[in-house]
Amino acid sequence: MANNVLISASLSPTSTILSETILAIIETVNAVESVLVQRENFNKFSIYLERLTVVLRELSKLDVNNSDSLKNAIEILNREVKVAKRLALNCGNRNKVYLLLNCRRIVKHLKGITKKIRQALGLISLASLDDSLFVSDEISKLCTNMLDAKYQITVVEEEILEKIESGIEEQNVDRSYANNLVMLIAEAVGISTEESELKREFEVLKSEIDNDELREDMAEAVQMEQMIALLFQSDIITTSEEIETKYLSKRYSLGRQSIGTSPTFERSAIERWLADGKNHCPLTMIPLNKSLLRPNKTLRKSIEEWKDRNTMITIASMKPKIQSNEEQEVLYSLGKLQDICIERALHKEWIVMEDYLPILIGLLGAKNSKIRKHAEDILCILAKENDDNKERIAKVDNAILFIVRSLIRKVEESKSALQLLLELSRSNVVRNLIGSVQGCILLLVTISRSDDTQAAKDANELLENLSFHDQNIIQMANANYFGPLLRLLSSGSESAKMMMAKTLSEIELTDRSKLSLFKDRAQDPLLQLLSHGDIEMKEVAVKALQNLSSIQQNGLQMIREGAVGKLFELLYCHRLSSTSLREQALATIMHLAISTTSPEADQMQVSIFESEEDIFKLFSLISLTGPNAQQSIIQTFIAMCQSSSGFEIRTTLRQISATRVLVQLCEIDNCTVRASALQLFYYLTEDTASAMGVISNLPKDSQMTQWLLDAGALQVIYSCLSSGNANALHKKEVIENAAKALCRFTIPTNQELQMKVVEAGFMPLLVELLVHGTSLTKQNVAISLEQFSESSCVLSRPAKKQAGFFGCCLASTGTGCLVHSGLCTVESSFCLLEADAVRPLVKVLEEQHIGACEASLDALLTLIESDLLQKGTKVLAEANAIAPIIKLLGSRPRKRCKRKL
């Protein structure tokens, strides 16, 4: 800071300048005693000068000639003290009214002089003052005091200046307003309120205006002229004739005219002057000629510059108000700023230059909705047709985020935010920033579907502007807005088509979206891409079609439009070695096949196969592909077997020995393919016994059991076991295999599954088969009953005893199960006793078939396990089971039977 106030050293010795400065200070202090205005401020300043004199006198006693820095500091003090002296003399000699009107400038000068003196003292303290600690301390104290110095005008002066400024701003004050101002000024400066005295004072004021030394620039000169023009509207200090002449000669307007070689006046004033019959110039008295009236372009330009300067001042002065905490003041200032924006394009540049953009964007986080909306409207005006301003707005921290957040606020604020984003989106640089804000595109898509026509139109236009970027289009597609995506898919570059097709293949689409895409013909470009030379392009196209074809309505439309043929071409093209492409094509064909099972397809009689050769070629791929492809092929044929052309499909598959292939697939490790192969096998085979045999020999893992359950195997088994003509050889085999197949559904580790079997009505059927079935049937039935019985102990509910007096005197009616002691039923605990299965099982012990005997014995032994031994033995004895068991041991002394006993 010191360097900013340094000036080149004078040629005079330091001691001489020091003496001159002390003398100038004394003269300034004396001049202060005579000032007419700002006495309190000048007295404060005078005290600082007196203390400065003490410091300088002490300094003069030291050897100061050898210090250049000290010399520079003294020269600064000398110069500023002389400036202060001139200011004090002016304030003692100038017109009082003039001094009041300039009181702010006077205070400003005092502050400036004090600051520069303090800076100069700082330079002295930096110089070598080792010889005088007193001087150094005094300078330090004085600098501190001057730093805290406060100069201000009085309340009365401030009130008068505010009234003058208000009158200038309103531009429509009357004479009474001016008269009141004149009287207030007279009382404030202490002059007589008599008309003659007032006129004299204000005439002196006019003469001093042209020699105003306090004015620093043109703006201050214009402001002073405005003050004078306002005050001289008072009829206290001006006659009616003078007012009219001054009004004609002094009022500023863009309509100023020249009268020949005469001075310049306002055109309307000239016309009124001439209309009153006055034909001479009021100043030069030269005769007037209407034909010589012409615009004064120079003056017009000056007035425009003056008005521009006023606007710039207004713009700058509103910043603190807009940043204040008073909401009403902020709203008023924003409204005024918006009006200034609208007036001229140049005003927008000034607002941006005043650094309003961060302020306005900061207001977007305000609590008041009206403030946020005003700020958005102004930003929109600033951004309109100005790419630089658009970029400046976007560069402010979190600007786009704040605007996007306003989209979800009140309707009017949301519309303003939408219009602002739309304007910003017209800049290539800003577009990407808008799309990158999380949730922005989703909000725009939502607005585009609103009932507000204009908002929907703006949102659609904004989305179109954002669609220049592929990632934005993908976001739109995720929000179910597909227009830009379909456009690029149809007519974009190769890379764009690839990306759009990939998007359709990967995003999760609702059924409604899939139908909408087909309505907009999304399938057309995708089907065309199936013929593309690039394998990767084919893959994304097929995958997209696979995604869209999961809706039956879309699948039928694809069949009608010949999509099946193109998909078959991909499958049978020897040049294509892509496994994933084949798998996706087969999955799509599967969707098309499933669509043929719909009621609509029955009416249309559609099929994916045109000939038996098509059936053969597709089925033959089972042996050449992996599990995923095999699953799709099998499911395709399962669907086609259920379609309107199912009979022909099943006949053809039997002719090509498809059942042999399916039997082989039932033995592979992949559970999904095994289950599907079994399901198709069921549709194809005429030998139910063989089908049941396959089911009974499938791996007994839980997943396979669940798949069989889902496929309806339990109902099929029940149907087989309850066949009417069980004596026929074929039917016997069916029942035997069905009984064996049932065993997987009765395992004791899955009581929920056991419950489903019982609820399906199997238990009475099994007991009946123990009597009428073949030995093999009885063996498998006994196994199922054994597995049921193993769960009975756990499921049997304890019997409730009757409490109270009657419970002691009366015999209990709820004695419970004779074996399990609880309450048992067939449906709740699968109890063999309740199912009346004990005696039929005992009867099976007499069979010649060792497997049936052992299975029956296993079932009966579940009644005497652990704690059930005593009660179970009694039940077996009552059922005459002891003798058959002993006989079984005697006739067939097998180790396994003995071990069980």
Question: Overview of this structure, please?
Answer:
Helix content is 69%, strand content 2%. Residues 1-12, 244-263 and 803-813 have low confidence and may be disordered. Among the domains are: 2-147, no CATH class; 161-238, no CATH class; 321-413 and 430-448, Leucine-rich Repeat Variant (Alpha Horseshoe); 687-798 and 815-900, Alpha Horseshoe (Leucine-rich Repeat Variant), CATH 1.25.10. With 901 residues, it is mainly α. The protein starts with a helix and ends with a helix. The strands form 2 sheets. Strands 2-1-3 form a 3-stranded antiparallel sheet. A two-stranded antiparallel ribbon has the order 4-5.
- Look at the structure and give the mean pLDDT: 83
Second rung of CATH, namely the architecture of the domain at 687-798 and 815-900: Alpha Horseshoe
User: In angstroms, what separates the terminal alpha carbons?
Assistant: 113 Å
CATH class of the domain at 687-798 and 815-900: Mainly Alpha
How much of the polypeptide forms β-strand, as a percent range?
A: under 5%
The number of E-state strands comes to: 5
By secondary-structure content and strand pairing, the structural class works out as mainly alpha
What percent of residues adopt helix (DSSP H or I)? 55-70%
Question: In the CATH scheme, what's the topology name of the domain at 687-798 and 815-900?
Answer: Leucine-rich Repeat Variant
The number of helical segments is 54
How would you sum up the global shape? elongated
Strand order of the largest sheet: 2-1-3
* Low-confidence parts: 1-12, 244-263, 803-813
CATH superfamily of the domain at 687-798 and 815-900: Leucine-rich Repeat Variant
* Backbone CA Rg: 54 Å
Biggest β-sheet description = 3 strands, antiparallel
Catalytic activity: S-ubiquitinyl-[E2 ubiquitin-conjugating enzyme]-L-cysteine + [acceptor protein]-L-lysine = [E2 ubiquitin-conjugating enzyme]-L-cysteine + N(6)-ubiquitinyl-[acceptor protein]-L-lysine
InterPro entries: ARM-like, ARM-type_fold, Armadillo, U-box_domain_protein, Ubox_domain, Znf_RING/FYVE/PHD
ARM repeats: 521-563
Pathway: Protein modification; protein ubiquitination
